[in-house]
């Protein structure tokens, strides 16, 4: 898809968001941002309006930059409409947590806020952070104030800016993991907006009067769309580095980090029946030493700020900037801004993107316990009192908690002498049980979907476990019970659970209807293809039965399901930029 574009503009020339251009040529959201007074809008007034549980439509968009989504309970939407009541408005709050690491004290604070102000659950996300759901308008400020007390915030967790920065969670490589996580945390702090509005609105901070630019890097219109960084530590590709706008692949000898290979242009989002939108895998373009990380990260952000599409939001992601202007153009522009050339990429190999469940020991002797959390939902249920159990563990844990990109949880850095006590709590609360699930379930994940996500067209988090029950029975019948097949589901085409690199995936089209995808790489290295469009459970299970029968009979030793369906001609292998809006004729 890449074509070489024009020569590079002078560094720092912000052509695309120049508001001296006719505003009708820009997307309305660009006008909204420009007129928002650096994301303040009328949020403070909307919060005080007692006549509604909502904020204004414009303020709802601006609050995304503050890490907050306005939602409503869609299960109740029709009944409330019949009663002539407004929707059951509530808010989702997403925490900024670079690399997914938090202390036991922070865990206890987060759990307390969820129980007091949310729906008594915490959601571990596919980008290694926490989401609160079911927060009412009057509880927004107390929740964000509570996060501030725990030295956490929600700045840039959503919106047209640099989202939460991901980092591989490899408990075996202790020193390397610590260094890469620290660099991810530092990068997150460097690339987020200044956002004085956040402190003024949510923390009652003083308004600062200054002649200096309020957003020296972002300007008044921020980025054209969201932007995502991720750090990977081979051989583990748990962050799906090729799906990130920018990926940094750690190059190390043993646990000594030298620098990073750079990938650019990944992204999962697409729109049904819109062939100009598509998932894309990042391109590997070179290597740089670790002491140049900040320069590289900031330069790439400013390139997207200056050249990203601000007229068509469906084409505003970084991947489309690269495809429209070409990788040669981007490399010239990047190296001109950096003042040095990238070195040739260094070799690396990914062998898995799965979590290593149960107890593992790090190179420094500390122990780590990885717990399967189905679809990332921390809650107390009749079957498992997970929220309570993890609070009890946090009260005695001497290490930290790590959230994995697969929505699971690591009780990390457990001293050898403390392992037995942690293990007794795990056993006493039945937390070894989830890790005994089938390989199919342990390699599955879903986005939130209904009832809260406004984009959802179909169930996801609530339905995938039910579907997995039925797929497990089929796998058992064909002798595939121990086979790991990366399976993902989203309630819409937006791709929050990274479905387009899964071996088996479903994206929602309507209640009970899904597009079915096959053939992604088991290590996140290959896009899948649409296999069937707009089908329900009966057809899904019938097709899986037929496919599993062939896989069991025709696979070669060690062959993954995603590789098999390509070798067998069931779907074709694809490159980035294919039309994902039509089923594969193969």
Q: Structural class, please? A: alpha+beta
Radius of gyration: 23 Å
> Whole-Å distance between the termini?
22 Å
Summarize the biggest pleated sheet.
5 strands, antiparallel
* Approximate strand percentage: 15-25%
Task: Report strand order across the widest sheet.
Answer: 1-2-5-4-13
Quaternary structure state of the chains depicted: single chain
| Low-pLDDT runs | 1-17
How many DSSP helices? Answer: 17
Number of strands: 20
Described by the principal axes of the CA atoms, the overall outline is: globular
Quick check: average pLDDT?
93
Fraction of helical residues: 25-40%
Description of the structure:
The protein has 586 residues and is α+β, with helices and mostly antiparallel strands. It has 17 helices and 20 strands. It has helices at 28-34, 43-48, 57-63, 77-82, 104-117, 140-149, 174-191, 196-202, 293-307, 318-325, 327-338, 386-396, 419-428, 439-442, 464-477, 537-554, 561-567; strands spanning 68-72, 89-94, 101-102, 122-124, 130-135, 166-167, 229-232, 246-253, 256-264, 283-289, 358-361, 367-371, 377-378, 400-403, 409-414, 444-446, 487-490, 504-510, 513-518, 529-535. The strands form four sheets. The chain has a five-stranded antiparallel sheet. Strands 3-14-15-12-11 form a five-stranded antiparallel sheet. Strand 18 (504-510) and strand 19 (513-518) form a beta hairpin. The radius of gyration is 23 Å and the shape is globular. The two termini are 22 Å apart. 48% of the residues are buried. The model is unreliable at 1-17 (pLDDT under 50).
């Amino acid at each position: 898809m890449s074509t070489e574009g024009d020569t590079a503009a002078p560094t720092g020339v912000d052509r695309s968001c120049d508001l001296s251009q006719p505003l009708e040529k820009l997307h309305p959201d660009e006008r909204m941002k420009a007129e928002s007074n650096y994301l303040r809008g009328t949020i403070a007034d909307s919060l005080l309006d007692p006549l509604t549980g909502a904020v204004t439509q414009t303020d709802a968009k601006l609050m995304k930059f503050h890490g907050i989504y306005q939602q409503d309970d869609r299960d109740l939407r029709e009944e409330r409409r019949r009663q002539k009541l407004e929707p059951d408005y509530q808010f989702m709050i997403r925490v900024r947590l670079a690399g997914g690491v938090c202390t036991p004290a922070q865990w206890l604070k987060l759990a307390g806020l969820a129980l007091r102000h949310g729906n008594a659950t915490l959601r571990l996300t596919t980008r290694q952070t926490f989401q609160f759901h079911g927060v009412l308008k009057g509880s927004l400020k107390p929740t964000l104030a509570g996060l501030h007390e725990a030295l956490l915030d929600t700045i840039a967790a959503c919106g047209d800016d640099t989202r939460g920065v991901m980092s591989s969670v490899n408990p075996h490589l202790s020193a390397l993991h610590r260094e890469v996580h620290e660099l991810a945390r530092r990068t997150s702090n460097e690339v987020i907006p200044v956002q004085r509005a956040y402190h003024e609105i949510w923390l009652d901070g003083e308004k600062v009067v200054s002649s200096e630019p309020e957003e020296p890097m972002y300007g008044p219109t921020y980025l054209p769309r969201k932007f995502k960084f991720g750090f990977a530590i081979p051989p583990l590709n748990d962050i799906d580095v090729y799906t990130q706008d920018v990926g940094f692949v750690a190059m190390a000898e043993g646990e000594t980090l030298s620098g990073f290979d750079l990938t650019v242009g990944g992204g999962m989002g697409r729109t049904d029946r819109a062939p100009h939108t598509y998932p894309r895998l990042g391109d590997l373009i070179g290597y740089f030493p670790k002491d140049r990380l900040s320069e590289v990260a900031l330069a790439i952000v400013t390139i997207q700020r200056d050249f990203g599409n601000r007229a068509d939001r469906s084409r505003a992601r970084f991947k489309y900037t690269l495809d429209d202007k070409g990788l040669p153009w981007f490399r010239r522009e990047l190296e001109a801004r950096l003042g040095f050339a990238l070195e040739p990429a260094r070799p690396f190999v990914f062998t898995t993107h799965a979590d290593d469940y149960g107890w593992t020991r790090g190179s420094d002797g500390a122990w780590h316990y990885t717990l399967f959390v189905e679809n990332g939902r921390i809650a107390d249920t009749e079957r498992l009192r997970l929220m309570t159990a993890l609070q009890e563990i946090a009260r005695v844990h001497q290490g930290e908690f790590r959230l994995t990109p697969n929505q699971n949880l690591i009780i990390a850095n457990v001293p050898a002498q403390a392992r037995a006590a942690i293990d007794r709590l795990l056993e006493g609360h039945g937390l070894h049980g989830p890790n005994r699930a089938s390989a199919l379930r342990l390699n599955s994940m879903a986005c939130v979907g209904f009832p809260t996500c406004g984009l959802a067209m179909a169930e996801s988090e609530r339905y995938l476990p039910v579907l997995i029950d039925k797929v497990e029975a089929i796998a058992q019948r064909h002798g595939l019970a121990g086979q790991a097949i990366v399976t993902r589901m989203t309630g819409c085409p937006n791709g929050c659970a990274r479905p387009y690199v899964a071996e088996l995936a479903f994206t929602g089209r309507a209640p009970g209807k899904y597009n079915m995808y096959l053939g992604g790489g088991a290590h996140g290295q290959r896009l899948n293809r649409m296999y069937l469009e707009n089908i329900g459970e009966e057809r899904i299970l019938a097709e899986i039965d037929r496919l599993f029968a062939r896989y069991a009979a025709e696979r070669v030793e060690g062959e993954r399901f995603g590789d098999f369906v390509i070798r067998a001609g069931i779907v074709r292998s694809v490159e980035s930029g294919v039309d994902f809006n039509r089923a594969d004729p193969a």
